Amino acid sequence: MPDPHPHPLGLPALAYADRCVQLGVRGGRVGALDRYARLYREGRPDPLLPPLCAPVTRRHASESGEGTVLKFTQTVRRALTSSAVSAIDGSGGLLAVLGAAPAVDTVEIESVLIPMIGKKRGRSYTLCVSSQVGCAMGCTFCQTAQMGLIRSLSTEEIVGQWFAARHIIERPDPDAEIRNIVFMGMGEPMDNLDAVMGAIEVFTDRRGPGLAMSKITVSTVGRTDGIARLAQRIPDPGWHRLGLAISLNAPTDEIRSRIMPVNRAMPLAQLRAQLEAWPIFGGAHMCVEYVLIPGVNDQPEHVEQLAAFMQGSAYGGPAQPRYPGPPLQGLVNLIPYNPRDASPWPAPTEESVEAFMAALSATRVYVKRRRTKGRDQMAACGQLGNPQTRRTRSVPV
């Protein structure tokens, strides 16, 4: 029987070392810190450790103008082990050996490596990670929502996506580093916030991946309770520059409630008030994501309504509703809709995307366009997840 051992992908370095000391793991504190750093930097686990992350089972490559987009999947148990549950609640459970269950009892995590060309023409990768298998939010335009929620991922399963991308799979450009992490894969991060915040602590640990906090973005459909809770961490040392992305996708409550059920409980006025309260420090950023869906949210009046949401009391146009607060300190990220399976809508035309972007810019809203990558391999925004992996009963959030 091997010694009990905390999971090194589920804890930052100092917490991992403390747990090793508490459990009497051979090597003590110094050995634990050395083992931790070597694991993250070289990908070579100490013989003391069992298998670390879920096995990579599938890869899908797709070409884009900036390089090869790579979607990969990892197989995990359908039900969380007791150790993974304790990792989610922050207690630093013992190491779980994942992927060993029969195939009928497994599901897949999907992650995407997205190539980016920087200002100096150097290539790096953004890693899009999942926080859940499936999603409970029910957004009608999203592939993942068609699965329902199967379960949340533990901290080590979230970090395991980085470990697989960095040390296990063969990246199309092995010299390009993973410089950004976005929680924009499967799931609603605010519904699994303990594990997400735990993963962020690991991602930014200097003995671990060592990413800058400004290179990490958490995306949400607009769970105002989760945004408020995450905002409490931002004043903490090291957390000031965490990025926040809000999946808005509609400029009125009527449209948004129709395509995003969360809006019925947390409407736009409540969401905007929470965004106004988000603490902004130097270098931090807030991104309002707007998926452009033909015939749903792409008309001239929607431009004006979106401008009113962004500008608040500074808005001078005719749109209704109006918002009394100050302008939001962020930008609009315009995303052309990527059709899901059996989608009721097509992708927008290039002309309609450019026209909407130009009209919104004319209202003095700062808007950027997200380039479509991986659509042909179901690896683009809103396309992750296998709808056939559907649970027959709901899972509590």
Multimeric state: single chain
How many β-strand stretches? 12
- Secondary-structure arrangement, i.e. CATH architecture of the largest domain: Alpha-Beta Barrel
Helix proportion:
25-40%
Q: What structural category do the secondary elements indicate? A: alpha/beta
General form: globular
How far the N terminus sits from the C terminus, by CA atoms, comes to 35 Å
Largest sheet: 10 strands, mixed
CA radius of gyration:
21 Å
User: How would you write the strand order of the largest sheet?
Assistant: 1-2-3-4-7-8-9-10-11-12
CATH H-tier superfamily of the largest domain: Aldolase class I
Look up the CATH topology of the largest domain.
Answer: TIM Barrel
In percent, how much strand structure appears in the residues? 15-25%
Unreliable runs: 83-104, 391-397
Overall pLDDT score: 86
Output the CATH class name of the largest domain.
Alpha Beta
| Total number of helices | 11
Number of domains: 2
Describe the protein.
The protein has helices at residues 13-23, 28-42, 82-88, 155-168, 193-203, 224-231, 253-259, 262-265, 268-276, 300-311, 350-362; strands at residues 56-64, 67-77, 106-117, 123-128, 132-134, 149-152, 178-183, 216-220, 243-247, 286-292, 331-336, 367-369. By secondary structure, the protein is α/β, with parallel strands linked by helices. The protein folds into two domains: 1-50, no CATH class; 54-377, Alpha-Beta Barrel (TIM Barrel), CATH 3.20.20.70. The chain has a ten-stranded mixed β-sheet with strand order 1-2-3-4-7-8-9-10-11-12, with helices on one face. Strands 5-6 form a two-stranded antiparallel ribbon. Helix 11 links the parallel strand 11 and strand 12 (367-369). Helix 1 packs across helix 2 (28-42). The chain is globular.
